[in-house]
Amino acid sequence: MLGAWWVARDTGSTEPAKAPAVLAASCAPGKACASVTPTPAPASATARPRQLAPPGFVIGRSVHSVEEAIGADGADYLVAGAVFPSASKPLSTRWMGVDGLGAIVCTARVPVLAIGGISGGRIDAIAAVGAAGFAAIGLFSGTDGSVVALRQVVGEARRRFDSVKTAP
């Protein structure tokens, strides 16, 4: 069985009634859950999801710079990116590269996941700077769609991130 976290993205909707429904729908009993707040966001951006979420709900925060990582108080983990060019981001996106990711990892007091342009050939570099893991779409959708191919990609990634990492 392949484990996964459900992720609810708080889009900062002006319709407060939607937020509890999104959180509740995303957090099935017995599943690990997360909420990723959008950036740029105020340092208090994790406060609202924390108030709405059930006890033990994991709150994440997207960051694009060391400054945003410093201001991400209350997050249980950070998602840092975009690290590399990605098909889902416009060409005008500022890529942080592994050096930028490493700077965020060194600054953060919580685990940091890399996102943006993640490929099998880049996982070693992400792990080398101390990231706790990564989030990806293209890496997984690039397989032939079979369970065997997906398990191979996941297995390779797990070998590189087989323990909880914290900032060096």
Strand percentage, roughly?
15-25%
Oligomeric status of the shown chains? single chain
Q: How many DSSP helices?
A: 7
Structurally, the number of domains stands at: 1
| CATH class label | Alpha Beta
| Mean pLDDT reading | 76
Compressed to H and E, one letter per element, the order equals EHEHEHEHEHEHH
Poorly predicted spans: 1-6, 11-26, 28-32
CATH superfamily: Aldolase class I
Shape: globular
* Radius of gyration from CA coordinates: 16 Å
Distance between the termini: 32 Å
Offer a few descriptive terms.
single chain, 168 residues, alpha/beta, TIM Barrel, 6-stranded parallel sheet, 7 helices, 6 strands, 33% helix, disordered N terminus
Give a topology summary.
Blueprint: E1 6-9, H1 18-26, E2 33-37, H2 47-52, E3 58-63, H3 66-70, E4 77-81, H4 97-107, E5 112-115, H5 123-128, E6 133-135, H6 138-141, H7 147-160
Parallel strand pairs: 1-2, 2-3, 3-4, 4-5, 5-6
Give a structural overview:
The protein is of the alpha/beta class. The protein has one domain (6-160): TIM Barrel. Helices cover 33% and strands 16% of the residues. It is built from seven helices and six strands. The protein has a six-stranded parallel sheet with strand order 1-2-3-4-5-6. The longest helix has 14 residues, at 147-160. The radius of gyration is 16 Å and the shape is globular. Residues 1-6, 11-26 and 28-32 have low confidence and may be disordered.
